[in-house]
Amino acid sequence: MIYLTNDALDQAVYFEILKREPQKKSGGTEQRFYGLLGNGVNEVPVTVRSWRDCIEMAFGKGDIFSFVEEHTIRRMLGEVFREMALH
After folding, report:
1. How many CA atoms lie within 13 A of 84 on its CB side?
2. Percent of the chain predicted with pLDDT > 70
3. pTM, rounded to two decimals
4. pLDDT over 70 (residue 86)
5. Domain regions of the chain by residue span
6. Dist. CA 36–CA 59, nearest whole Å
7. Residue 14 neighbours by CB distance under 10 Å
8. How many whole angstroms separate alpha carbon 66 and alpha carbon 52?
9. C-beta of residue 41 within 8 angstroms of C-beta of residue 12
10. DSSP string of 22-47, one letter each residue
11. What are all long-range contacts of 26-29, with beta carbons under 8 Å and residues at least 24 apart?
12. How many helices (H) and strands (E) does the chain have?
């Protein structure tokens, strides 16, 4: 579980990786991560695809973005996955 920030109600916002699938592609390996983004009350499923220098995120439906800005979460998760790609 990765702590990201606090939401508007001062609850911790976290991301939990549930599954990781590396897939070979020509020119490299694509990583797919499946997880949950939540604040203890609301959770949404998240799929992250990382390949070369590109990171794509898809969020499921939920109320979490009523409490924290989606742009902020995308930026923070992007930093996390870029760091993971370096190690």
Report:
1. 18
2. 97
3. 0.84
4. no
5. 2-86
6. 9
7. 17
8. 32
9. no
10. EEEETTEEEEEEEEEEE-SS-EEEEE
11. 27/52, 28/52
12. 1, 5
Q: Is 9 helix (H, G, I), strand (E, B) or coil?
A: coil
CA atoms within 13 A on the CB side of 9: 11
Cα 85 from Cα 68, distance rounded (Å): 26
The pair of three-digit structure tokens given for residue 56, joined into one six-digit string? 């794509």
The answer to whether the CB of 55 falls within 8 A of the CB of 73 is: no
Contact indicator for 52, 71 with CB cutoff of 8 Å: no
pLDDT tens-digit map of 22-64:
988 887 888 899 999 999 999 999 999 988 888 999 999 999 9
Cα 57-51-26 angle, rounded to 5 deg? 140
Q: Which residues pair with 21 in a beta bridge?
A: 32
- What's the CA gap between 6 and 11, in Å, rounded? 5
Measured distance CA(62)–CA(27) in Å, rounded: 36
